[in-house]
Every structure is written in structure tokens, then in C-alpha cells.
Write a structure and sequence with these properties.
mainly alpha; 3 helices
């Protein structure tokens, strides 16, 4: 059966029948149980403070008015 024929057949099913068909397909194509993976280690909060220190800088004129908005300033 071609892919298009399968799609046409699935389109004819009611919602309940479609849900049942999809759950059967899902169960059939489930991979074997995957090995358990350990969760990544969380950084303690005390070590997280200052973690990004020095990774960005602000210019000295950060608060200065922008030339682009001169028309809107008083």
C-alpha cells in the first residue's frame, strides 16, 4: 500500500478509530527501552553568582540619548 493510499484510508476513520490506529502504530514502532541517562549536574547557587562576569561590557554612554530619537525628545 502506498503512502497516499494509507493517508486516504486514515482520513476515512472516525476520531476514535484514528486514535486507536495511531496508538497501535506508536506501540509497534517504540524503540527498545533506552538506557537511563543521568540528569546533568546542577550548579549550586553560590557558584552560579558571577559565572558570567567579564563576558560582556557596557559602554560609558549607555544612558546617553540616542541620535535616532532626537525628534521625539523635548
Amino acid at each position: 500500500m502506498s503512502r497516499q493510499e494509507m493517508i486516504n484510508e486514515l482520513a476515512k476513520l472516525s476520531d476514535a478509530e484514528l486514535a486507536l490506529a495511531l496508538s497501535a502504530v506508536r506501540e509497534h514502532h517504540q524503540p527498545e527501552t533506552a538506557p537511563l541517562q543521568q540528569a546533568p549536574q546542577k550548579i549550586p547557587l553560590r557558584e552560579a553568582y558571577g559565572l558570567l562576569k567579564g563576558s560582556f561590557t557596557m559602554s560609558n554612554d549607555f544612558d546617553a540619548p540616542l541620535d535616532h530619537f532626537k525628534d521625539y525628545l523635548p
